[in-house]
Design a protein that fits this description.
The protein has about 375 residues and is an alpha/beta fold. It is built from 18 helices and five strands. The protein has helices at about 1-5, 55-60, 70-80, 90-95, 105-110, 130-145, 145-160, 160-175, 200-220, 220-225, 230-235, 240-245, 255-270, 290-310, 315-320, 320-330, 335-340, 345-360; strands at about 10-15, 25-35, 40, 65, 85-90. A five-stranded mixed beta sheet has the order 3-2-1-4-5, with helices on both faces. Strand 2 (about 25-35) and strand 3 form a beta hairpin. Helix 9 packs across helix 11 (about 230-235) and helix 14 (about 290-310) packs across helix 16. The longest helix has 21 residues, at about 200-220. The two termini are about 50 Å apart. The relative contact order is 0.09.
Length: about 375
């Protein structure tokens, strides 16, 4: 397949993984379509070495078309050690066109009249053999991507936004490989944890850690070992017997049989923790924002809303909140300094830089009366 694709200038790619069924997750299928619409299904569970595809995906002269590329890219980097260049994401393109529905099924129906089929996103893609329905679903996810790109490019060029999408896709290609980092202290972020006392928080942390180990041991996602609601109830009730465990929602006889001793041991371990060492829910400290910075943020936010409405774009796409904060804090003096704001992107600086700089220069400070804001045109 790699040999057949050699010399081509564009391919469509997609993946299917088993994150809902296995732990850790893995890529279970790679779909590839060429310019003619010929689709190949690659089984990485059978063919472990996909290095034949590495030169293709790393070649910037070959366009790789994805839809919602970030998950596929990070997963393929993790599992196959790929490097990517030449990405085109049809979802990103649809965002920059201001389309109301961004899902692939919606776009195929909008541009080609293809009726949406049944979603198989919840299937266990590690099971073999794949059914004919699964193979058809997987193939359709890439069969039309190259034609969809052509349609989107027409609209992007009309609106002068092709370079915007190109730059965003370049950034996508650089995203890191997927990596799971487990921190026992993340247990405090479980919904409802803030209502526990210190000893309850300690029990929750012990259970949270034990569940992670059981997930690795059994190859099952943590939520399938025991849900967060059950962990929270165990931390609140702290049962001391198997009978007490069975009264906790989610602690079925099967769960108690498999993990009961471990659950009781985790609860008991907390008895030895001194009161002074019990965890607490960290209270987020809101940094004090100087009044002048706050005024600049407010002015930039109003400009963003007006400009986004005129362009038919989501305001967060036009200028994310983090960029508003950076701009208001750093107040770049001139286009060169503006271009050095991390994550601003060239397309924002070139298209809206003049308006942004004017706003930052004229935004009212607490001791200065307000002036009329610049035009939403942003130039």
């Amino acid at each position: 397949m790699a040999a057949a694709l050699a010399g081509g200038r564009i391919v469509a790619l997609d993946t299917e993984s088993d994150s809902l069924h296995s732990f850790p997750e893995k890529v279970c299928l790679v779909q590839v379509a060429d310019l003619r619409g010929t689709v190949s299904l690659v089984d990485p569970l059978a063919v472990r070495d996909l290095s034949a595809l590495a030169p293709l995906v790393a070649d910037p002269a070959v366009v790789k078309v994805f839809h919602g590329a970030s998950y596929d890219l990070s997963s393929m980097k993790r599992d196959f050690d790929f490097a990517f260049a030449g990405i085109f994401d049809t979802m990103v393109a649809a965002q920059f066109l201001g389309l109301p529905a961004l899902g692939l099924a919606s776009l195929l129906e909008r541009f080609f009249g293809i009726a949406p089929g049944r979603s198989r996103q919840k299937d266990d893609w590690a099971k073999r053999p794949l059914t004919p329905e699964q193979e058809s679903y997987a193939a359709e996810d890439v069969r039309h991507l190259i034609l969809l790109r052509e349609q989107l490019l027409v609209e992007l060029r009309i609106q002068g936004r092709e370079a915007w999408v190109e730059e965003e896709c370049q950034a996508l290609a650089a995203i890191p490989a997927a990596q799971r980092v487990f921190d026992p202290n993340d247990s405090v972020h479980v919904k409802g944890a803030k209502d526990l006392d210190g000893r309850g928080l300690a029990v929750l942390r012990e259970l949270f850690t034990a569940r992670e180990a059981w997930a690795w041991e059994g190859g099952r996602p943590p939520f399938k070992v025991l849900g967060n609601e059950s962990l929270l109830a165990l931390a609140a009730e702290r049962p001391r017997t198997r009978e007490g465990l069975q009264r906790i929602p989610g602690c079925s006889p099967k769960v108690v049989q498999r993990y009961g001793d471990g659950l009781l041991a985790a609860i008991a371990r907390v008895d030895a923790i001194p009161e002074s060492d019990l965890p607490t829910v960290p209270r987020p400290k809101k940094p004090r924002i100087p009044a002048a910075v706050q005024r600049r943020m407010e002015t930039l936010t109003r400009w963003r809303a007006a400009t986004a409405e005129r362009l038919g774009l989501d305001p967060g796409l036009l200028l994310p909140r983090r960029l508003i904060e950076h701009l208001a804090e750093q107040v770049p003096a001139g286009r060169e300094a503006l271009g050095k704001i991390e994550g601003l992107r060239r397309w924002r600086a070139e298209t809206f830089g003049g308006g942004i700089l004017e706003i930052l220069a004229t935004a009212p400070s607490p001791d200065r009366p307000r002036r009329n804001s610049p035009s939403p045109a942003g130039r």
